[in-house]
Amino acid sequence: MTESTPDIEISRRRLLGTVGAAGAAGLALGATGGALAHSALTGETATTGAAGSAGALSSLGSTQVAFHGDRQAGITTPMQSKGHLVAFDLAPGAGRAEAVALMRRWSETARRLMAGETAPTADTGIALDAGPSSLTVTFGFGHSFFDRTGLTARRPVALDPLPEFSGDRLDPRRSNGDLWIQIGADDALVAFHALRALQKDAGEAARVRWQMNGFNRSPGATAEPMTARNLMGQVDGTGNPKPSDPDFDKRIFVPGSGPGPAEHAWMAGGSYAVVRRIRMLLDDWDKQSPQKQEQVIGRRKADGAPLTGGTETTKLDLDRLGPDGRQVIPANAHARISAPEQNGGAAMLRRPFSYHDGFGEDGSPDAGLLFICWQADPLRGFVPVQRKLDRGDALSEFIRHEASGLYAVPPGPRPGEYVGAHLLEG
Q: Which domain of life is it from (predicted)?
C-alpha cells in the first residue's frame, strides 16, 4: 500500500516560477524522464502536474508528495537531495495539551509547504520562487515523549531504548529527544524554509535538542536512476527491500492488527525509525587500496556487484570459494554480515543522507552518514543486524557511531487530522 496523492493545485509560488522557464525546456524534459523513472522504480506516488510541462517549472520543482495518506511521506518517498533532521524536547511544564496544539500547528504547516504553499503564519519568503520540490516532512515520537505527556501506557514495547553496542561513542546531547522531524526536498531553500517554519511553530512549547543537515546526489545528476553512493564512494542501499516485495509491508510497517495491547493500536500502519550519526574516518579509508576496500565491503566499488560476480542486484554467493580455498566474500565483509539470510531474514529500509560538518584541527573531515532505517519492529530489524556488525564487521575500523535515536512514526493523517491524533486523543 502506498501513499495517495491528490491532484496538484497551481500555487502562487509555482505560478511565479513559470516566468522565464521556457528557456530551460530542454533541461526540464531531461529531468522529467529521470524523475518519473525513479519514482516508478521505488513505488513512490509523488505526482507532477501541469507545472511539469514544457515552458513551466521543471519536474524537479513541481513534483509534490501528498501529506495525507495511509503512511507518512518520507518513508518510501525517493531519496531527496537535501535533508534536515531535528529533535525537540517539550519545554518545562509542557504536557499533553501543549503537545496536541504543537502537532496541530506542525501538521498544518507541513501540509501547506508540501503542497507548495506559503507557511500559515509569518512566512519568511525564503522559497517564494520554488515549487514543492518533493518536500516531505515526517514526524516521530521518542521514548521520553510518553513520560512527558502522561501516555506511558500507550508507549509500545518496540520503542524501548536500543541496547548499547561496543562500538558506540554516543554524544547524549545529539541523541534521542521527545519529538523528531525528518525534512527532505530536492531544493535546499525549500528544505531550509520548512525547517525554519517548523522551528518557529514550536514557539514556547518545545526547544531544539539537536539538528543535523544532510545531502544526496541530485535527481538527474546521473544518466539513469541508480542506487546512491556514500562518501566512501560505495554504492549504498543495494539490499534494500522494495515496495514490490510480497513481504515489504510486513517488514517495514506495523500491522493493522496483532497480538499487542489495544493501547498500542495507534501505531497500526506506522513504522519505527532508527537514526544514527555515523562518522566515516575518510582519511583512513582513502589510504586503503580499492581491492582492500572491496574486501571490507564485499562488493565491487565500480558498480556495487558482489565480489562473486554479476550485477549490483545479483544475489551474494556466500558459499563460493576462490582458487586459494578462501571465501570470495570474506567472513567479516560488511555485505555478508548484514545480509538478511545471515540474520534470520531481518530487514530494514535504509534511507540515509550524507553529511559534512567541516574539518577538524588535524584536517580530517567531520563527515559521514546520517543513517535512517525503517522497520516494523527494531527489535527484529535493526538490533539483531547491528549486534552482528558490532561483533566483527570489517567496516567498523573505518566508522564511528556518534549519535543515536529511536522514534515511533505513526501512520499518515487523514484529511482534517493531524499527525499523532490517534495517540494524543485516542
A: Bacteria
| Beta bridge pairs of residue 85 | 182, 212
204 by Cβ neighbours in 10 Å (0-12 / 13-18 / 19+) ranks as exposed
Q: Based on the number of CB atoms within 10 Å of its own CB, is 169 exposed (0-12), middle (13-18) or buried (19 or more)?
A: exposed
Q: Are 129 and 168 in contact (CB under 8 A)?
A: no
Catalytic residue among 236, 249, 377, 393: 236
The rounded distance, in Å, linking the Cα atoms of 240 and 252 is 11
Give the H/E segment covering residue 109: helix 96-114
Question: In angstroms, how far is CA 129 from the centroid of its own chain?
Answer: 26
The cell numbers describing 383, all together, are: 538490533
pLDDT, tens digit (0-9, with 9 covering 90-100), for 249-303: 999 999 986 656 767 899 999 999 999 999 999 999 999 999 999 999 999 999 9
- Alpha carbons within 13 angstroms on the beta-carbon side of residue 177 total 27
Q: Which three cell numbers stand for residue 120?
A: 500559515
Q: Look up the pTM and report it.
A: 0.87
d(CA 10, CA 162): 44
Report yes or no: 64 and 46 within 8 Å, Cβ to Cβ.
Answer: yes
**7: annotated active-site residue:** no
391-418: per-residue pLDDT in tens? 999 999 999 999 999 999 999 999 999 9
pLDDT in tens, 222-245: 888 889 999 999 999 998 999 999
Contact (Cβ atoms closer than 8 angstroms) between residue 286 and residue 297: no
Q: Using CA atoms, how far apart are residues 213 and 2, in angstroms rounded to an integer?
A: 27
